[in-house]
Specification:
The chain is of the alpha+beta class. The protein contains three helices and nine strands.
Length: 151
């Protein structure tokens, strides 16, 4: 491999999802491009797309993909973690607590109960982003969650 790993997430609301992954998770918008139908169609991507590349501070990239020719249905059900294929995006954080505090106001909802679980010396929390994609947050520092979080 010659570059850090990239993953693409197909979205309905590009601006909202860009704000979520930048303002809450800590990614940085790096590049925005319109992919014409002449490329997106033959590549099997459904036609014209808008793509925003978000740099993950520790390396790698999340690409937010907005199909223009065949918009994603607002009625599309969130994907279950128990199905084959991409299940969740995992972000390793220095401090889980500020991110946890910002998630509900950004339209995310917790998937785990308790919200923070301890596993192998790490604090882990699972959330659905504003469009229902599973996001795993890992704080390798371990220890006990703040009193405001269930345990």
């Amino acid at each position: 491999m010659t570059r850090p790993f990239e993953v693409g997430v197909v979205v309905r609301d590009l601006e909202r999802m860009e704000r979520f992954y930048c303002d809450v998770i800590g990614c940085r918008a790096e590049h925005r491009s319109r992919i014409p139908d002449s490329i997106g169609g033959p590549a099997g991507l459904g036609g014209e797309l808008t793509v925003v590349w978000l740099r993950v501070p520790s390396g790698g990239c999340v690409k937010l993909i907005l199909p223009r020719s065949a918009p994603v249905s607002a009625d599309a059900a969130p994907l279950s973690a128990g199905r084959p294929g991409l299940s969740c995006l995992t972000f390793h954080l220095d401090d889980l607590d500020p991110v946890l505090a910002a998630l509900p106001a950004a339209g995310a909802r917790p998937l785990s109960d308790p919200v923070v679980v301890l596993a192998r010396g790490r604090r882990i929390s699972f959330w659905a982003d504003p469009e229902g994609n599973a996001v795993e947050l890992v704080d390798a520092r371990g220890g006990n969650p703040d009193p405001g979080h269930s345990n």
